Every structure is written in structure tokens, then in C-alpha cells.
């Protein structure tokens, strides 16, 4: 028989992912659904498979077994070029470290995804500036990364991930490299921004305080889903149960 299609109201849906890298089993039988505009925290200790799961969900990697669907279309059967296009056009990604281009200014770094799409210089600059201002670094827009603090650089990387207003934002320990107070402030700004744009977020973290900002939490341990952490509202847990097959 044909594989079952995912529920319509899920933006991302993964079923029975088994993923190995070399001899190590990184994900075992992981299933997950993410609803439109939901902020879902992926929690677990280092090495539990959070990054690997986000790689599979975003089409950066393809699990050896299992399915990934985005907006009711299969991702696991796409070619590498189709998956690249999907990531460029629909997804945003934040790494723990900013990864900026040292030769470009803050606004040029933030505008890069738009410039590479062929958006005009002026329009790209306007959008980048809006996001930089929202992240409280508009005043540093003309500076290069070496002249900025790590916290400012990470804000630029966050602005770059949002400048295309992606459908789904994958945030991998987005504030792990920041001091605590700084990280908390950046995270609050990020959460407010994604909520106001209805962006769906997967937030990988080993920090329970960070995860507490999400709508729902999925816990991983050694590549497996473990008892879903207590949801902040009872309804989330119920909704999740009713979706499982
Ligand atoms: N290229 C690789 N080859 C073999 N094993 C790998 C490779 N990359 C990651 N792994 C293993 O996969 C497992 C999951 O790693 P992953 O980075 O997804 O975990 P994580 O929960 O995101 O941890 P962290 O918080 O450290 O990023 C780990 O046991 C890791 O050692």
C-alpha cells in the first residue's frame, strides 16, 4: 500500500526516522509532528541527536529509513537539488556560532539570502536593516564582524535567518554561545519576532529555561524520543496524542 499522508494541519511531519552516520546509530524510530506557527523545543543532552533530527527535518540529511513531509509534500524522496531549493526558499537556520562573512558589513551579512535571490540592493538593505533594528543592532549595521561582540554577531546571524521570513526556522542552540543575560534577551526578541510573523520554529537546546519559552517540548535521549516532557498547557499533550498513528 501507499504510505499514509500526514495530517493537513502539520507543517512538518516525520515518521519512524532511523538515521546512522558511519557505525553510530544517531536516530532510532523518531516520529514527530509540528503544527503551523508552533514553537517546538527539542531537548536532550549533548549528543542526543537534536542536530541530526533537525538536519533530517530540514532536508540537509536524509535518514536511511522513515519519512519527512513538509506542507503535505514528501521531502525524503526529493533530489539533493530540490532539497537545497526548499531550504533556500522556505527554511531559515541558526547555528550555535554566527558564521558570518568577515569581509561584509553587518547589514550585508544579514541581507545575503535576499541578495543571492536577486532582490534589489535597496530592498535587501531595507529588510536587513529592519531585522537588525529589531534585534537592537541597527546602530552597528556598517561594522564588520571583527569589530563586534559575539552577542552582536549572533544577532546578525539571527537577522540573516529571518530576513527571508521563512516558513520554518531551525534554531540550533541559538544562544548557547552568549552570556546568560544576553542570551535571554536575544531569545525573547527572537521569540517575539517569530510569533508576530507566524513562523514555525524548531528550537534545539539542552537548557530547560530556553525550552520553557516554547509551546511544546519533545525530548531525545540517545537518538530516541523519551517521555514527552510535561506540556505547559494540558491541551498540547492531548493534541499530540490524538495525532499519533
Ligand atoms: N559525522 C558523524 N559521524 C558519526 N557520528 C556522528 C557524526 N555527527 C554526529 N554524530 C553522532 O551523532 C550523535 C548525535 O549528534 P547530534 O549532534 O545530533 O546531537 P545533539 O543532541 O545535537 O548534541 P549537541 O548539543 O552536542 O549538538 C552523537 O552521538 C554524535 O557523536
From TrEMBL:
Keyword Translocase on entry: no
Domain spans labelled ABC transporter: 12-245
Pfam families, per database record = ABC_tran (PF00005)
Q: Does the keyword ATP-binding apply?
A: yes
Entry similarity comment: Belongs to the ABC transporter superfamily.
MF-aspect GO terms: ATP binding
Keywords (alphabetical) are: ATP-binding, Nucleotide-binding
User: Which superkingdom heads the taxonomic lineage of this protein's source?
Assistant: Bacteria
User: What's this protein's name?
Assistant: ABC transporter ATP-binding protein
Q: Which organism is it from?
A: Streptomyces lateritius
